[in-house]
Amino acid sequence: MIRPKSVKVLGQRYKVRYDLQDDDNEGKTLGITDQWTNTIRLQGSLQEDKMASVFMHEVTHAILNESTLSDRLRFGLEEVCDIVGFHVVPFLKDNPDIVAWLLKEVEE
Length: 108
Fold this sequence. Notes:
It contains 4 helices and 4 strands, in the order E-E-H-E-E-H-H-H. By secondary structure, the protein is an alpha+beta fold. It has one domain. The termini are close together.
């Protein structure tokens, strides 16, 4: 499946770019989420199995940003469960193509 070019995160459309280079961040960052430009940037050279994990990591940043929870440094157990139940599940429902892409990565 083709890598996603955009995702809907709690009502906001985020562009997904695969142009982050090692020299942009000294090889230390695999992905970046910018809530001001609604952009997720990923290193395009990542292997597909790692790409899915880094992608979902950055999507989690976007979910937290859009849900006003990004100021929190720590979360309790129930708060983490609420994030998944009330924010991650709607994200997956809004982006069925992402679910298919993630499942394809798991199967291979």
